[in-house]
Write a structure and sequence with these properties.
Blueprint (H helix, E strand, L loop, with lengths): L15 H11 L9 H11 L6 E6 L4 H13 L4 E5 L9 H4 L7 E5 L2 H10 L3 E5 L6 E2 L9 E5 L8 H6 L2 E4 L11 H20 L7 H15 L1 H9 L9 E2 L5 E2 L1 H4 L6
Parallel strand pairs: 1-2, 1-6, 2-3, 4-6, 4-7, 5-7
Antiparallel strand pairs: 8-9
């Protein structure tokens, strides 16, 4: 465990990765407008992110369900969520999502083949939540390499095309007469088990490299202090001149980053 002379509120010694992320954030111009406690919290959360577990939402249409899946994925520390928008556009209910979409990397796709192909090329096992013949129990899903959980639409479930593309179809054990959960409940049950098993396999709370953790946390910083930035803008401060470095060290205009909906 790494030691630090900086006062930190984690109630324990921070890890080396947390120290590295905190130090990176302290160098950002906007860090002057938030507290060290907030920066440490961001460092703690980002270092618990899992990039080796992801979710693919295939054409969900109910905004409440979309918002609930997004919120669940963020709560379980998923780094990236994929949304297939044909024909239904990605539009989570903000009241249900509770701001989770601000902290989650959401990638939007216009077709299923491309996202599945990219995930397979990235080493992911594609697993579709389904019911019926040919499904294996959720407990048998492999977690020794990256895994993508595909959730089908509320009405039709996993599409026939998706069934042909995935590696595994699995089901959640049911003990009652009803054969399936609501899609958002299913996502919560699945992610609880899969993230727990994956973290146990890794013996780590998260699996993103330090550089990616720093990049992601730097992207969160303007959102974390949105109200402070808006206050500065109201006072006539040129927030563009106080731009924050992105992961590629390019200047990102803050006026474009702070336009987040209130939660």
């Amino acid at each position: 465990m790494a030691k630090t002379e900086e006062k930190q509120p984690l109630g324990r010694d921070p890890t080396e990765k947390e120290v590295a992320v905190f130090g990176y954030l302290k160098k950002e111009p906007l860090s002057a407008h938030t507290t060290d406690e907030r920066l440490w919290r961001m460092a703690e959360v980002v270092t618990q992110r899992l990039q080796s577990v992801t979710v693919v939402m295939e054409n969900l249409h109910d905004a409440h369900n979309v918002g609930a899946v997004v919120r669940t994925a963020e709560c379980y520390g998923i780094d990236t969520l994929h949304v297939v928008e044909m024909p239904n556009p990605y539009s989570p209910n903000k009241g249900i999502a509770r701001g989770a979409d601000k902290w989650l990397n959401v990638e939007r796709h216009q077709g299923l083949n491309r996202v599945i192909g990219d995930l397979v090329a990235g080493g992911y096992t594609i697993c579709a939540a389904d019911v019926g013949e040919g499904c294996v129990p959720m407990s048998e899903l492999p977690i020794d390499k990256p895994i993508a959980i595909l959730m089908g639409s509320e009405r039709d479930g996993v599409s026939d095309r998706a069934k042909k593309l995935v590696d595994v179809r699995f089901s959640i054990p049911m003990m009652g007469f009803t054969e399936s959960f609501n899609v958002s409940v299913s996502a919560a049950v699945i992610l609880h088990e899969i993230t727990q098993r994956r973290r146990s396999f890794l013996n780590e709370p998260g699996d993103m490299p330090i550089e990616k953790c720093q990049e992601r946390a730097a992207g969160w910083l303007p959102r974390a202090i949105r109200r402070s930035v808006q206050r500065l803008m109201g006072q006539g401060v040129d927030v563009v001149e106080a731009g924050i470095r992105s992961g590629t060290n390019d200047a990102v205009p803050l006026e474009n980053q702070v336009k987040e909906p209130s939660t």
